[in-house]
Amino acid sequence: MPERKSNSKSIPRPAARRLSLYLRELASRLEQGETTVSSKGLGRTLGLTDAQVRKDLALFGQFGHPGRGYATSDLIDSLRKIMGRDRAWRVCVVGAGNIGRALVSYDRFRREGFEIAAVFDGAAALAGSDIGGIRIRPMTDLAKVVTAEKIALGIIAVPRESAQQVADALVAAGVRGILNFAPRRIEVREGIGIVSVDFTVALEQLAFQIAFGRDDGDAASGHSPDAEAPTQV
Amino acid sequence: MPERKSNSKSIPRPAARRLSLYLRELASRLEQGETTVSSKGLGRTLGLTDAQVRKDLALFGQFGHPGRGYATSDLIDSLRKIMGRDRAWRVCVVGAGNIGRALVSYDRFRREGFEIAAVFDGAAALAGSDIGGIRIRPMTDLAKVVTAEKIALGIIAVPRESAQQVADALVAAGVRGILNFAPRRIEVREGIGIVSVDFTVALEQLAFQIAFGRDDGDAASGHSPDAEAPTQV
DNA sequence: CTCTGTGAAAACATTCACAGCG
DNA sequence: CGCTGTGAATGTTTTCACAGAG
């Protein structure tokens, strides 16, 4: 087996998750007018130690100012860049059922730079109708539209049975990553990103916390990137 | 600070996540008629090593048969019991917007033993209307209904701004755990379960995988239990 | 020979603790 | 001082590797 190319420094998996939390919290703080934050303050509201926050940020460079903390706005800019959030992502949703429709109507995606550029559904009956002004297209148009609209990410909101097949079609059409809401593991070839969210698993983790009496508070996490050699939720 | 009571043996946090995956995969295999599974076979389809699977299961007892593997049906029963899935859970949804409506219509919850017994929304305008036959009730009825309907879990599907307040109301009403879809960390007192799912964070993890070129495939995970001394997604 | 359960080793992640900057 | 960045220490999770059961 060939050596796996290890990007730059290789980011601890748990750290990658936390980066999103930092970004979300920082945006909130900037809105509150906090122009500067300390690792202690950030860790406090996220339930992490100050050392943890500093270690995570230090993975990508030196963003802080000794004695002063981090400049909120600058740190946001840096993190956005690191996470690929410094540009808009064009997204398509496959499946116009309950979940698909809710996602298409979820305004936050657009505000955060994830623009839903197309919606597909296999049911001929739905083709031509629309969700909040976005037309539902037949699956047969997928490859054509993904290319024409420069769509980089696909969201799977179809039943379990057709999920892998849809994933294959998305990858063949050229998307670079998939967010999967179907309750099964999706396999994609190396180089394609994958994150899964399973609502039932999320509720089950909750039941487990209660039934088993976990006392630690961190842990399960509702979506999981289940990539090439994956774990998934 | 007092010693934290450690339940039974204390389950590795990542293992708790995987338990849900085992259960989901096992159910699928039983349906296919596979009456027996090996740690290797299970690990294979979930992207885990066989040793990992055995270690996880061994945390709770001895379920396997050397030379033979695990009896699918028995293992499912054991895992269901361990995870608190051997009984029905009554759930309420707070927020009748896009996400709330999609969740109420998500049939899989009921099939898996999570029954949505009530839906609440703060907007007076919605009170009285219904979603798939379930009446939307005003927030003022929350405590009364949670008690009367013996609701144990609450799902938060309201905007960020009111999420913590709704969480407090749910806990005060007596729920034992909360599944949060609002994009912020929710604080609950010790003993109350919490898992969060943030769609934007899920997409962001995907963007990160692509932008940063992560090559490992496991990692981020879309929902996170952000309990008392939490981490959250 | 197949496959589990499990100590022991290795890998990984978090926390500590402190030098050094402003 | 307050606060960052970081090696060293500690704690946790995964993998290895094998004894023993069927």
Protein structure class of chain A:
alpha/beta
Counting DSSP H or I runs of 4 or more residues, the number of helices of chain A is 9
Tell me which protein chains meet in the greatest interface and how many residues each side has: A-B, 89 and 89 residues
Q: Do you know the CATH architecture of the largest domain in chain A?
A: 3-Layer(aba) Sandwich
Kindly state the percentage of residues in helix of chain A: 40-55%
Enumerate the strands of the largest sheet of chain A in spatial order, edge to edge or round the barrel: 6-7-5-4-8-9-10-11
The helix/strand series of chain A, from N terminus to C terminus, equals HEHHEEHEHHEEEHEHEEHE
Q: The CATH topology of the largest domain in chain A, please?
A: Rossmann fold
Low-confidence stretches of chain A: 1-7, 216-221, 227-233
Rg of chain A (CA only) = 20 Å
The top-level CATH class of the largest domain in chain A is: Alpha Beta
Work out the oligomeric state of the chains in this entry: homodimer
Report the strand count of chain A: 11
Largest sheet of chain A: 8 strands, mixed
How would you sum up the global shape of chain A? globular
The residue-averaged pLDDT of chain A reads 89
In short:
In chain A, 40% of the residues lie in helices and 18% in strands. The first copy, chain A, has 233 residues and is an alpha/beta fold.
Protein model, in words:
- The structure is a homodimer of 233-residue chains.
- By secondary structure, the first copy, chain A, is an alpha/beta fold.
- Chain A folds into two domains: 8-80, Arc Repressor Mutant, subunit A (Orthogonal Bundle), CATH 1.10.10; 89-197, Rossmann fold, CATH 3.40.50.
- Chain A contains nine helices and eleven strands.
- Chain A has helices at 13-31, 39-46, 50-58, 72-82, 98-104, 107-111, 142-148, 160-173, 199-212; strands at 36-37, 64-65, 69-71, 89-94, 114-121, 130-131, 134-138, 153-156, 177-180, 193-197, 223-224.
- Chain A has an eight-stranded mixed β-sheet with strand order 6-7-5-4-8-9-10-11, sandwiched between helices.
- In chain A, helix 1 packs antiparallel against helix 4 (72-82), helix 2 crosses helix 3 and helix 7 packs across helix 8 (160-173).
- Chain A is globular and about 60 Å long.
- The two termini of chain A are 27 Å apart.
- Residues 1-7, 216-221 and 227-233 of chain A have low confidence and may be disordered.
- The interface between A and B is large, with 89 and 89 residues.
- The structure holds a DNA duplex (22 and 22 nucleotides).
